[in-house]
Amino acid sequence: MRKFARWGLFGRTFLLLTLLMIASLAAWLQAFRNMEIEPRAHQMAQQIVTAVNITRAALVYSAPIRRRFLLLDLATNEGIQIYPRDPADRTEPLPDTTLMQWVAARITHQLGPNTQIKWAVNDMPGLWVSFSIEGDNYWAVLERARTERYDGVQWLGWGLAALLLSLLGAAMIVGFVNRPLSRLARAAQALSRGETPAPLPEDTGPDEIRSVNASFNRMVNELDRAEADRALMLAGISHDLRTPLARIRLEVEMSPMSEEARDGIDQDLAQIDHTIGQFMEYARPPVHTEELIDVSGLLERLVERERAVSENRGGTLQANVEPGQWSRIDPSDLTRAVVNLIENARKYGHLPGLPTQIDVYLQARGNDIVILICDHGPGISREERERLVRPFVRGEHARTDASGAGLGLAIVNRLLAPAGGGLDLLSREDGLPGLCARITLPAYKAARMGSGIQTETA
């Protein structure tokens, strides 16, 4: 049931139609069989009765000297053999099927109530029918093929042919219905990745599909306009806020006040400027790219730069980067995401009085690339980990630091989303105290051919 729930619309609809057609065809064949069984039984019984009557008449009216040749001719050409009937004969009754019971009833009705019909006598198979001639009892033995020639193979062939044609028709119908929905689903997926999908057709297809396509196209246009308006508004807000901040900073520098007061105001202004920068970064639309980048090389360069920063601040940064890992993501987005996580580890990932220790890993896991940025700090609870990736949420330890707005991890998640990546906060896998921020990206294989790069999913 879970596997069926993960099937697409085409698979589900086609499977349901297939089951419906199989059930309908089976019901139709059973109904036709029930309606057809009585005339079949009547025809078979009439043929058997005719054969027995003709055989008896031939034996009665033929000369005794010619009866031996008559019996030989009946056995050779008509498949009818005659045996004397003895009360000590071992008999086997007819099969207990509706058809055979109806055939036996009609034969008994026409040949008399004392007529016996057996499926085998003295272990000799056949259709045995008793009759009498001048007080002598005989068996007329007919081949079973007279009753078994209606074996149903022909009906099965016709049924399978009808089912095959029905399935082909169902596949065409489901494909016709599913095609516009698949196009709409692909457009919605492209929109969720930050792309602008091509307009859906509004002049073809059923009225309902055209209406949905028109509504979707209007929604895309409205989102584009809203995105443009938001970018313009944010640019204006940034300019309108940072311009007076620059004037205030200049006036503070020129005003006669103590160094302590001037430093406090500078710190407040820097905090405001940093918060404005975080808002702008979070509000920036995500970037989707088809460019394939060497994640291993980019991370190695970042690690070298951030290692120098950590050492200047009295800490350490160690890395283990698996080479040859590629993915599709904007390089600046991945750089900002990794730098944000390393900066978080520097701020909060150490115990009081101890230097900061940061471990960075890159490794391939199945079809994904995993980047781990781990610290040796106090760590956080599972409940708080799930909460911290939401915007405007800050951890208990971070609330003593007034330099952020609780957008750092949310910005990382937003930067990774267009590439199909994600962020998780986990405990360290090696059992040491601390926290690991895990970045997951789809992995791709790259092979250089000439001057270009050929790619495929890993």
UniProtKB/TrEMBL annotation:
Domain HAMP: residue ranges: 175-228
Organism: Verticiella sediminum
PANTHER family: SENSOR HISTIDINE KINASE ENVZ, SENSOR PROTEIN CREC
Gene3D superfamilies for this protein: 1.10.287.130, HAMP domain in histidine kinase (1.10.8.500), Histidine kinase-like ATPase, C-terminal domain (3.30.565.10), Sensor histidine kinase RisS, periplasmic domain (3.30.450.300)
Domain called Histidine kinase: residue spans: 236-445
Membrane topology recorded in Swiss-Prot or TrEMBL: Multi-pass membrane protein
SUPFAM superfamilies in the record: ATPase domain of HSP90 chaperone/DNA topoisomerase II/histidine kinase, HAMP domain-like, Homodimeric domain of signal transducing histidine kinase
Protein name (database record): histidine kinase
Coarse class of the protein's main subcellular location: membrane
MF-aspect GO terms: ATP binding; phosphorelay sensor kinase activity
Gene Ontology CC, one term: plasma membrane
PROSITE patterns registered for this protein in UniProt: HAMP, HIS_KIN
